[in-house]
Amino acid sequence: MSTPPPQGNPFAQGQNPYAQAPQGQAPYPQQPSAPGVPPQGAAPFAPIPPEQPRRKVSFKTVKNILVGVGIVTAIVVGYITSLDDANQANVGDCLKSASSSSDEMEVVDCTSSEAEAKVLKKIDGTYTSFTAETECRKVSDATSFYAQTGDGDNFLLCLKDV
After folding, report:
1. Which residues contact 110 (CB under 8 A, 6 or more apart)?
2. Considering only CA atoms, which of 111, 72, 117, 79 is closest in space to residue 98?
3. Max alpha carbon distance in the chain (Å)?
4. Distance between the two ends of the chain, CA-based, in angstroms?
5. Is the pLDDT of residue 85 over 90?
6. CB atoms within 10 A of CB 6
7. Dihedral sign, Cα of residue 143, residue 145, residue 93, residue 96
8. 50 pLDDT higher than 80
């Protein structure tokens, strides 16, 4: 029988780096730890930091939200009021002046006391005052006209007084 080879590292200098530390002694030298960090051998996780206080809503944020809501409201109101404009008028609809200082017309119910004129004919295209009057003279019972030009939606309405 032969003898087994010696155990261990032949190059080691008399110490086993993997040897267990004696009981009651830490495997590594203890160093003072930084504040908030547990010492070696304590809990394996860091402490949970306290919850940060919630930020107050700033004046700038409130202002920006209100400006945004105001812009959206203006767009919606503008769209809704444009639904009654003369460009939405069809033959048989009644119109009234939008205001005494404006040449804009609005669609109203024909039974309303505000109704001023009834649409007899609607013609697409661009018309001058002279060509609009000439075109509406061809329509029987027409007493006036309304021509809209320049807004991309050009048309002529031949009207009869109500």
Report:
1. 92, 93, 94, 118, 162
2. 117
3. 135
4. 132
5. no
6. 7
7. negative
8. yes
Give, in order, the Cα–Cα distances in Å from 101 to each of 65, 88, 90, 94, 104: 35, 21, 24, 20, 9
To the question of pTM greater than 0.85 for the whole model, the response is no
Is the CB of residue 26 less than 8 Å from the CB of residue 41?
yes
pLDDT value, residue 72: 94
Q: Are 104 and 97 in contact (CB under 8 A)?
A: yes
Q: How many of the other CB atoms lie within 10 Å of CB of 131?
A: 13
Q: What is the DSSP letter of 18?
A: T
* DSSP code of residue 48: P
Higher pLDDT: 68 or 34? It is 68
Query: Count of alpha carbons within 13 Å of 59, Cβ hemisphere only?
Result: 0
